[in-house]
Amino acid sequence: MSLSLSKKEVLRKKKTIDLLFSEGASISSFPVRFVYMKGGKKEVSSLEVGFSVPKRNIKLASERNRLKRKLREAYRLEKKRFLVNDFCGYGFFIYTSKKKKDEEKITQAIEAILQKWAVATSL
To answer: How far apart are CA 117 and CA 45, in angstroms?
Structure first.
């Protein structure tokens, strides 16, 4: 398995994103929240993910983009562990803090979400 984040793995469809937020489950570990939903094997072959940093919390676009890059990088490095249970579906990472956090805090939050994720998907 490649450690890259390909275009096929990025969630882009508005209908799917709306459905995800209306019917999906959520896992939080400050400053990151992960919303996920199981999809059918025909719909998606693995986990499709999206990343968001709300403009309400971080005003400068350059800072929002930097935080999204940090989120993508933290996910990309831990992607192999997210796909262990052969989960097919959708996920969305949302940065919830009003202040900029360093890469280490974001990575720790992703790892904490991953631990909670393993318990949630094994049921």
So the answer is: 18
Is residue 85 pLDDT above 90, yes or no?
no
Q: Residues 40, 112: contact at Cβ < 8 Å? A: no
Give the CATH number of domain 8-113; options: 3.10.20.30, 2.40.400.10, 3.30.230.10, 1.10.760.10.
Answer: 3.30.230.10
* Sign of the Cα pseudo-torsion (47, 28, 115, 79, in order): positive
Q: Mean of the pLDDT values across residues 11-19?
A: 93
Whether this model's pTM surpasses 0.70: yes
Q: Which residues contact 21 (CB under 8 A, 6 or more apart)?
A: 35, 92
Can you give the residue ranges of every domain in the chain?
8-113
CA torsion through residues 44, 48, 54, 59, sign = negative
Question: Which two structure tokens, joined as six digits, stand for 15?
Answer: 């209908």
Confirm if 83 and 49 have CB atoms less than 8 A apart: no
Nearest CA among 14, 28, 38, 13 for reference residue 90:
38
